[in-house]
Structures are given as C-alpha cells and as structure tokens.
Amino acid sequence: FMGPTTYERHHYLFTGCEPSIGGMVIDFDGHVLGMANFPGTAYIPSSIVLKCLDMWKKFQCIPRLHIGMKLSPIKFLDPIHVERIFRKCNIDSGLIVKEVSHGSIAEELGVRPGDVVDSVNGECVATTVELENLIMRICENHLDQGGAIGSCMDILVGILHMRKGRKGPRHTLSLRLNVSDDVEVFISDCAWSFDDRILTFPP
C-alpha cells in the first residue's frame, strides 16, 4: 500500500473502496489467514468467512444472534494485565465484557462491564472467534430445525460477575435473543465502562 501509486496497486486484492478493506491477510508462508477488517488492525479469520459463505448458500442470509455485549478475550491482553486478573480473580481465560448495550436483555439480567463470559450453551469460549463460530453454528442449527429469521431463541451464558475488582458469584444466565440477518444496533451507556489499562470494575 505504501509503495506503489494508486494506479500500480493490485486492486483485485481488495473488495472495498479503501486499500485496507477486504484485502487478504497472508502469513510469511503465503497462506491466507483471513480478510482485513478496516478500521483498526483486526481481521476476519478464514473460518468465519467460509462459514458466512456456506450459510449464504444455504439460507440466502447470514443469521446471527444480537447478544448486546462487546467482548474482549483475556488471553490477548498484555501479560501484566493477564497476571493481575489471575492474581485477583484466579481466572486466565474467558471474554471480558467491555460494554453492555443499553436496554438489552444482558443489561436487564445484571451483566455489567468487567464481568467475564466463560461459556455459551455449556461450551467454553476463550476468544471472540470461538464465540462467533459457536453463535453461527447455533443459528445454523436453529434454521435447519425450522426456525426463521426474526424468531427468538434461548441461549445459556456462563457469567462470572466482577465487583470492585474481585471475582463474585458465577451464574448461568438464560438470554432470549433475536435471530437476525441485520446489523446489531448497539446503544452505548456512558455510565458503565471498563478500562482495560487498569483492573477496575463497576461496583
């Protein structure tokens, strides 16, 4: 991107209008790992892209659940932060709740930023890729069994409640979520936030 001029770039590598949207992410051995996801430095792994294509062929849509939470894996935090969480809470795996959508079922059931999701429908989740694959598999099974876009389904989410920087009780919450093929509208609430630079949780 930084080298050639606009007219000399290999535009077939990109599906979007910006140079970093939709381009292939490849490793030093030439293997395609996924697709660039702009803005930011994240990318969509090949497993997710292929699953989306497969579901589009089957259902002419890509169903997913609107979970009402923004999550970040513990294992990808800096090592000092991971050690601090382990010493204070005795956990080193799971997804930290960064934000909860205002008015969502997760908020109604008491999920707050700083809580940790460790399982969905009894399966452990340690990364957002694992969570996304699991959610798409749940949606695929739902449609295969006669469910429809716009219907609701119940999923079980294992939550470790964190309060004042300490691990609280673990609960399994039943979230009744909408199966949708549309973008999830996330409503931020500035009253609740989680700063991953320091281990602070809401009371």
From TrEMBL:
Superkingdom as given in the UniProt entry: Eukaryota
Coiled-coil segments on the chain, per record: none
InterPro entries reported in the protein's UniProt record: PDZ_6 (IPR041489), PDZ_sf (IPR036034)
All copies of domain PDZ, residue ranges: 96-135
Pfam family, one: PDZ_6
Entry-linked Gene3D superfamilies: 2.30.42.10
Designated name of the protein: PDZ domain-containing protein
Species whose genome carries this gene: Aegilops tauschii subsp. strangulata (Goatgrass)
